[in-house]
Amino acid sequence: MSDRHSALTSPPANDRKGATSSRGATREQVDAAIRSGLLTGRFIPGKAVTIRGLATDLGVSPMPVREVLQRLAAENALEVKSNGRVQVPDMTPDRFDEVLKARLLLEPELAERSLEKLSKRDVKMLTTIDDEIDQCIISGDAEAYMRLNHAFHFHVYRASGSKVLLPLIDSLWLQFAPFMRTVYGRVGTAILVDQHKEAIRAIEQRDRDALRDAIVGDITDGMGLIGKEILETT
């Protein structure tokens, strides 16, 4: 990713006047845009951007961008260099191991806590999302796949109402998502498998063990691709 090819989508032309006004976009909007860029792989590992470049893309001053980036740096999602350049931290074997173990500890637990709160309407929504994911796999749309995969998991997790575990899991996703996008760029989406249908079936049957197993399997499969394509080839 270079400054010429933005990690973020600029506001539509008819919105830019408002976005670049003295009020500008709020810090929350900047935060949402940058987090979305991380989660969908628009920040490419090894490629740096500048604070000023991101601010220009978003139509805001550098100040709210700098504040958001400092927050994301504290979550280990980005590194902010002294020269104002920003990049995704390297995925080392130790970091990979910690992220994997943390996901395996936290995500099945939160899914289980969500189980009794997920309704038939939620099952229908999850099925719709999973159907769209299947279409992305067929079409090779990696960015849409990542957006929908995140939507599927967090639809489940948010049902728990957790104020502690959910932010931790969100932070973990910000750390590994850019590398998943790199993997999909190398191997495509045709080889992707997930445990979403197993998770949906477990929710319908109110089967805690099956839901935990589905989440564990999904994490293991996805992170295994990072281990193989990123760590073993560097």
From TrEMBL:
Region annotation Disordered: where it falls in the sequence: 1-27
* UniProt GO molecular function: DNA binding; DNA-binding transcription factor activity
Coiled-coil region(s): none
Q: Which SUPFAM superfamilies match?
A: GntR ligand-binding domain-like, Winged helix' DNA-binding domain
- The answer to keyword ATP-binding applying to this record is no
Domain HTH gntR-type spans what residues? 24-91
Q: Which UniProt keywords apply?
A: DNA-binding, Transcription, Transcription regulation
Gene3D superfamilies noted in UniProt: GntR ligand-binding domain-like, Winged helix-like DNA-binding domain superfamily/Winged helix DNA-binding domain
> InterPro entries, per this entry?
GntR_C, TF_FadR/GntR_C, Tscrpt_reg_HTH_GntR, WH-like_DNA-bd_sf, WH_DNA-bd_sf
Quote the protein name from its UniProt record: HTH-type transcriptional regulator McbR
Species whose genome carries this gene: Roseibium album
